[in-house]
Specification:
Helix content: 25-40%
Largest sheet: 4 strands, mixed
Structural class: alpha+beta
Distance between the termini: 62 Å
Shape: elongated
Number of domains: 2
CATH topology of the largest domain: Ribosomal Protein L9, domain 2
Strand content: 25-35%
Length: 150
């Protein structure tokens, strides 16, 4: 099934790209969600007409992603958690926790952009990749420290 993407999807391509997907993925996800349209002659003509607008939007999004990557690259996020004597946390640090801490540092990201395979369950520093745009990532450092007793 051939579709024209209406938005950038990291596993498929950029907005305006013509992609071939499996029928079920296109019919059950991309079309109902409005993320793509069928590659008919009418839609292809509309794509050609809007090509310059789409390219401008792509360039703007790419530039924004690169600026965000420069801003957060090498950033250290400090998160306080309760921990036992063996430096294991009571609970864990998830991508939602990291996202909330980044929001306090004036960096607006979605928690799905933080590429954390497993929650952090120990104290110390961990390097984490953040996907800020299509093919644009930045590395941040998350330092988990114990909460000081009051």
């Amino acid at each position: 099934m051939e579709l024209i993407l209406k938005e950038t999807i990291s596993s498929l391509g950029f907005e305006g790209d013509v992609v071939t997907v499996k029928a079920g993925y296109g019919r059950n996800y991309l079309l109902p969600q409005g993320k793509g349209v069928l590659a008919t002659e009418e839609n292809m003509a509309a794509l050609e007409k809007n090509k310059a607008e789409i390219e401008a939007r792509r360039a703007k999004d790419q530039k924004t992603a690169e600026n965000t990557a420069k801003k957060i690259s090498g950033l250290e996020v400090i998160i306080e958690q309760l921990a036992g004597d063996d430096e294991r946390l009571f609970g864990s640090v998830t991508n939602a926790d990291i996202c909330a801490q980044l929001a306090e540092l004036d960096v607006k990201l979605d928690k799905r952009q933080i590429l954390l395979n497993d929650p952090i369950k120990t104290l110390g520093e961990t390097k984490i990749m953040v996907k800020v745009g299509f093919n644009v990532t930045a590395e941040i450092s998350v330092n988990v420290i114990p909460i000081k007793a009051k």
